[in-house]
Amino acid sequence: QGRLQQWGAGLLRPSETLSLNCAVYGGSFGGYYWSWVRQSPGKGLEWIGEVDHGGRTNYDPSLKSRLTVSIDTTKNHFFLKLDSVTAADTGVYYCAARSGIHYCFDFWGQGTQVTVSS
Amino acid sequence: QSVLTQPPSVSGAPGQRVTISCTGSGSNFATGYDVHWYRHIPGTAPKLLIFGNTNRPSGVPDRFSGSRSGTLASLTITGLQPEDESDYYCQSFDTSLGGSVFGSGTKVTVL
Question: Is the pLDDT assigned to residue B10 strictly greater than 70?
Fold first, then answer.
């Protein structure tokens, strides 16, 4: 099983762009959908979007207009960009590996607290 | 609003059995996608407990078990221990969304 390590800016002002990175160590890069999940304060887990090793993406429809998930297979990294953030985008963001076979999230990053505040 | 419905909370004394339900709909469970369960302490990485409705990953204690019938799935903790106090989430794939969906989450309290 692999391991994920994530990083990115944790404090943003409204209208800025949220950018997070996730590095993949171990595991089969082609066997997963590389995903982002968040948890807003007081709420549950929310799937945001994902990318496969070929660059094909799936996004939550409510975020699709602001969201870009991409991948760099040469570096085993994948990325999240969320434009025009508001306070509603505050939360803990996790990168995760969704199995292409069982459709479950096999392993996760440690999480990044993102706060949007003026 | 979560697509998968869970009770907000369940509780039990040490050693007891508790069951968490997860109710889906026609665009997820009924289309044949499996249900998976996670334990989550906010601010830390969620942990996969059950995959494919009933299977435990290596290292997960056998006091955790999963079941599913139609659009209803359940996670049962047998022999509840103090360290089981946590939030628990079900998850599946939804064809209407075109992506993964999580349950609303259940807080387990050990009395």
Answer: yes
